[in-house]
Amino acid sequence: MWKRKELKQNAKRSLKLNYIACIAVCFIMVFIAGEYQSSVQFILKYDTRNVVNLKYDAEQKAQIVHEIEKQCDGDLKKADDKALNEAIDKVSEKYKIKHKDSLKSWVEVYKQKGVSALNFKEVTFFGASGETSNWRVVKRTLEMFGSGTVVIEKKINLTEDQVSYLFDLLTKNITSEIGIVCYLFRLITFKDMVRVLIYLFCALLSMLIAVFVAAPLKVGERRFFLENRTYHGTNIGRIGFLFKVRYFKPTIIMLLRNIYISLWSFTIAGGIIKYYEYAMIPFILAENPKIDRKKAFNLSRQMMMGNKFKCFLLDISFYPWIIVTSAVSAAVALLIFGFAFEVLLTAEICSGLLMVLFLNPYKTATKTELYIVLRKEAILGKYESYEELNDEYLDLDLLEERKNNLTEVTPVT
Question: Are the beta carbons of 349 and 356 closer than 8 angstroms?
């Protein structure tokens, strides 16, 4: 039975001996394979529009929108684009708001949902809300079929932002795949051929990148960490090992894994279960790229049986690092800047740097240690298809143990 403390201790030992390479690998994965997106949310989400959203509260936004409405003869819905743009120009000049797109977004929100919706800020403390939220992508897609998700939110007694945060937390590693599925669903509802072609192109491009670039790199990242725990000084080039050996089967298996999880994610609870059920597949492929699809899925299922909730708790156990870092940095910024948007920005930057410089490689190294433990259980317990875990030199301790056992049972002649 594995313990979180032991896994983390072993992970720290591995990191210490090849720290820079581990950081470099995870950093590459952020920008090429789309992993660890929460690490750079302060870069991706703190654009000029979001800064304006943070600087103005709901009451100020409402005042500005009402002023725009007055400029449009008291009716925003009937105002044409020219009149609306002129009104926004005048109001933005009066309030010295350079980025007019923010005002346009406030007007649209006000027109669609009313003044109460202006309280929404795209950037939250946890960075879960906003245009990049997986939950809102799913929600918009379901609404196109006339099936809203408000019922789901009410049933679990959470607000939209809370549901968004939890859903995004559990699906952050399959964001691109969720996007692909949503693109394909939207194609069904559009009659405008130009829009259909645009969505089809976006879906195809996202799929090609996810399948032929991101998926092999994700498997390669696991290979790097598997080798690094035993052979310290492993070269970062190992993340591209699938490109060198030209095995394409793992890319298809990873695609199917991500599609299954994406489809199950529409049920929320099912997505969480399947995410952890298939969590070992990238490691299995990293060890044996030639493994059959059914065997890879079946092995992961067996290895995670009884371990899914424990693995979930393992993931959650890293968040106190982020919370403490964010709280301390926000408190310092509060003393320096007072109550201003810089406080939230400082907290996000500090937590982002923590993840880039420590937490990302630490988490992956810990998951690698978990795989080694579950792998050992699978081999010794002779799970179905356990013989596919055939790279003996990934775990030298197990290799030595098996040799000693073999020597003990071999009769002396």
Answer: no
Q: Are 2 and 373 in contact (CB under 8 A)?
A: yes
CA 357 – CA 23 distance, rounded (Å) = 6
**Rounded Cα–Cα distance for residues 12 and 28 (Å):** 20
Instruction: Enter the tokens of residue 252.
Output: 């298809």
- On whether the pTM is more than 0.85, the answer is no
- Separation between Cα atoms, residue 23 and residue 359, nearest integer Å: 9
Q: How would you label 156-179 residue by residue, b for 16+ Cβ within 10 Å and e otherwise?
A: eeeebbbbbbbbbbbbbbbbbbbb
d(CA 217, CA 7): 24
Helical segments of 172-248, H only: 175-189, 193-209, 215-230, 241-245
Alpha helices in 72-124 (DSSP H): 81-95, 100-113
User: 199: which 2 tokens?
Assistant: 């969505």
| Alpha helical stretches, state H, 266-384 | 269-277, 281-287, 293-304, 308-316, 319-337, 341-354, 360-380
What's the CA gap between 280 and 377, in Å, rounded? Answer: 13
From residue 179, alpha-carbon distances to 23, 58, 262 in Å are 27, 30, 9
Residues 71, 103: Cα–Cα separation, whole Å: 14
Using a 10 angstrom Cβ sphere, with 0-12 exposed, 13-18 middle and 19 or more buried, the burial of residue 374 is buried
Cα 280 to Cα 24: distance, rounded to the nearest angstrom: 23
Nearest to 253 by CA among 206, 307, 300, 315: 300
Per-residue pLDDT of the chain (413 residues; tens, 9 = 90+): 899 999 999 999 999 989 999 999 999 998 887 788 766 655 555 444 445 555 666 677 788 888 888 888 888 877 888 888 888 888 888 888 877 777 887 888 777 767 656 654 443 333 333 345 667 667 767 666 655 555 555 555 666 666 666 676 666 666 666 666 676 666 666 556 666 666 667 667 777 877 888 889 999 999 999 999 988 889 999 999 999 887 788 999 998 998 888 888 777 678 889 999 999 999 999 999 999 999 999 999 999 999 999 999 999 999 899 888 888 888 887 887 776 656 777 777 888 888 889 999 999 999 999 999 999 999 999 999 999 999 988 888 888 887 777 666 555 55
Q: Which two tokens stand for residue 315?
A: 């993931």
